[in-house]
Predict the 3D structure of the following.
Amino acid sequence: MWLSIVIPTFNRSFTITRALDSLQKQTHQKFEVTIIDDGSTDATESVVQPYLAGNVKYVRTAHGGTPQAWNLGVKRSKYDHVFLMGDDVMLAPECLAALSSTAALVEDGLGAVAPRLIYTADPTEPYLGKKLSKYASLQASTGDIAGSFNVGGEDAMEVAILHGYSLVRKEAFFDVGGFDEKTYSGNYYREETDLWLRFRMKSYRLYYEPKARVYCQKSLMRGGQWSNVEGSLLAYEYYVLRNHSKFLRKFYGRKRLLMLPTFALRRLYTRLTETYDSED
């Protein structure tokens, strides 16, 4: 199976090369890569130059935010399955092979397949991270994600929610309208959850493949969405509350009036205890 890989990036010249290096080490090499530079003002354009070849393309756009960058990348993709890859992650060598194998097995009604997401202090020294036994789900009381995307196992399983770094079937992605470019802003919190709920509303099936592993650096407070809020933790948390409120209005209606205060308290607890496994 041939794959298209889309990597939106914004002021992450210090991490994107690690992501690209991990692609070169994949056991599955049937892919193209499109880097969407969302108006970076750092050295991103120069550091990616050594990687540009026939199957790796670089597209620079005016800064419009990650939802717009994701959609542009998928539109420019060549193949039927597109891996949405972060500029701050590293893939274990078997990651793409495991994802493509699962996608081929469950092609009927498939929407997307997510790898195991492992937060680590240093992605250059991968480890299995804080593994929880309960897979992620949406809390009825808050609309927030509880549980973990880092659950071990040998077999893929159908699930109700995914994280953002997933392999999507392009036809399904376009059928649900792609990422919402209008509702969210700032750090674009909940853009991914929004997408997966729309997949489910159209009866597309979501799968989790624990044999595919992605390593993400936790507490990364430079580049990316931090540049959008000028590195301000207060501004970042403001957009968490703002965007989650928009998300609740869109999917839960009046129930949001009870859900948002509960979410705010849980968010405060999460931030104080530095729980990263259930971040969106």
